[in-house]
Specification:
alpha/beta, 2-enoyl-CoA Hydratase, Chain A, domain 1, 11 helices
Length: 255
């Protein structure tokens, strides 16, 4: 039986491939508790000498990640609570950034808001043709402040701005592939999983030190992100307190 509060699992296979899998019954949306578990497990995998490469994935077929938990968003009562919640996404992005291992993303379905941030923060992202993306934050009265740096780093300012401004539009997987968010897309999960297995097995046979140094070069120029994303979390935490945000989320929940 599934836990209605969601779950995060971390497993290591005989080849040193670590898999972090998250689940939430509401389209794999992420409350604060799950965000903490994801970032904690990325940090653990980074430090675990048995782990050679990491796969980040979610359960289900059509939704990779629904972004922030609306239930938690609407219950935020003050700036401190808001900042703490949005810091959860900041911590996951920074965990990916600092991780000593290459992270492969598996995006099997739609990604919204923070889900786009996760797809941007991994080092190599596979997806299916069902994996449309949307940055819906502006329509909620906030903005993609926390995930913005990761998305911009991956697809550039122009494409990130397109997503951020056209906040109600789904951009299909082909668009995301062309912009560089996805490295490859597939017709179905089975084809994608075969490719993930091949790459992860290849990487597990490579030099750990070489991969660690290569990853550092990928993330050059981001040493200030601890401070940057902390400030961005405070911006989002203040905006979510507005009547506009509360009313908009309430309307969506009651549709």
């Amino acid at each position: 039986m599934k836990d209605n509060s969601g779950s995060v699992q971390f497993d290591i296979d005989q080849n040193g491939i670590g898999t972090i899998k998250f689940y939430h019954p509401l389209s794999n949306s992420l409350p604060g508790e799950l965000l903490k578990k994801i970032s904690d497990n990325i940090n653990l995998a980074s430090e675990n000498k048995q782990v050679k490469v990491i796969i980040l994935k979610s359960e289900g077929n059509r939704a990779f990640c629904g972004g922030a938990s609306f239930e938690e968003l609407i219950n935020i009562q003050n700036l401190n609570e808001g900042k703490i919640f949005f810091s959860g996404f900041a911590n996951v992005i920074n965990a990916c950034r600092k991780c000593s291992k290459i992270i492969i993303g598996r995006v099997q379905g739609k990604a919204v808001g923070g889900g786009v941030g996760l797809a941007s923060a991994v080092d190599y992202c596979y997806a299916t043709q069902h994996s449309a993306v949307k940055l819906s934050e502006l329509a909620l009265g906030i903005g993609p402040f926390v995930v913005g740096p990761a998305v911009e780093r991956k697809i550039g300012l122009s494409a990130m701005s397109t997503l951020a401004i056209n906040a109600n539009k789904w951009f299909d997987a082909d668009w995301a592939l062309q912009k560089g968010l996805y490295a490859e897309i597939f017709d179905n999960n089975d084809e994608m999983d075969l490719a993930i297995k091949k790459l992860s097995n290849d990487l597990s046979s490579y030099s750990l030190e070489a991969m660690k140094k290569l990853k550092k070069t990928f993330w050059e120029g981001t040493d200030h992100w601890d401070d940057l994303l902390n400030k961005r979390a405070e911006i989002s935490g203040s905006l979510i307190l507005s009547d506009f945000s509360k009313e908009t989320i309430h309307k969506i929940q009651n549709k």
